[in-house]
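[PROTEIN RECORD]
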Amino acid sequence: MEEWKIGPETYTSRFFLGSGKTAHYTKELIDSAIQRAGAEMISVAVKTLDTEDSPLDMIPEGIRILPNTLGAHSVEDAVNMAHIARERGLSNRIKIEIMTDSRYFLPDPHATVEATEILAKEGFLVFPYFYPELRTAKQLVKAGAAALMPLASPSGSNKGLQTRDFIKELIRVIDLPVIVDAGIGYPSQACEAMELGCAGVMANTALATAEDLGLMAEAFRLATEAGHAGYLSHRRNA
């Protein structure tokens, strides 16, 4: 597969392992995501770093870590978590998640933009998670985001690209990698996202709850590759 970049970093895989089901993180899940899905980056919640079953203990060297601020409810929460992650030597990457509710886990757009601006100025490579609204996306670009992570549908819902048209508009207008996140529950949905022109797909629930985890991981790799190839073919009227 061809190389592509997020900020100064180079990638080949377009599949990322998320942390929506952090409690289900197992060695089998992480190994399958790396070996069969080809994941080069795994998101880990900062709040789990000091737990007994921290995912960090299962991730081999050479795999990039994307700390995330899952559980943050304010700009201050998110910034503090980013500082904790960097002080722990994880990386200068941070996925910003600042939630407004406990039912749908919808992100707070204003707090997300503010936290992105603060952390980007401090040298962080910021990956904001947000509802795919174009005005917010433009603000995040101006704030210094390295990539955008719009939700496809509510986290863990497996409902796929309910925000399809909004994500498509982001890809058309915004000159940053768009990595679709939340709600991708099937390989076919990942393929659809890639066909739109997304740079990558993050998923977790689909793998964590699969009866044959390894096979599901491989299916996601094939789906992201097929979808990206479909996008590159420039199909008319897509």
